[in-house]
Amino acid sequence: RWLRYAGYTLVGSSIWGLCLLFAFNQQRLNSSVMSGALFAVQHDPAVIALLGDNIQLHKQFAWLPHPLVLGTLNQLHGQVDLAFYIAGSEGK
């Protein structure tokens, strides 16, 4: 009987963890810092020369609805460390 409850706990914890991952990713993705960083990358001549026009965020996993943004974003303390993938018309 305890094995069944352990299974339910494992499944519930996994779903809860995925929901947290999705929520924190959305928070980072929709932040003004992320918008500013993407704007700076899109208008950087060195990046345009390397990747071409139409530079956008790149989705790493097909099963995620949005691109994955990793790192920390603490605007209150001025700590921003974001990592994301970009792709242009000529490459990733």
From TrEMBL:
Keywords: Membrane, Transmembrane, Transmembrane helix
Any single Pfam family the record assigns to this protein: Coa1
Claim: Cytoplasm is one of the keywords in the record: no
InterPro entries given in the database record: Coa1 (IPR014807), Coa1_fungi (IPR042432)
GO cellular component, one term: mitochondrial inner membrane
BP GO annotations: mitochondrial respiratory chain complex IV assembly
Transmembrane segments: 6-24
PANTHER family, per database record: CYTOCHROME C OXIDASE ASSEMBLY FACTOR 1
Protein name: Cytochrome oxidase assembly protein 1
Protein's organism: Syncephalis pseudoplumigaleata
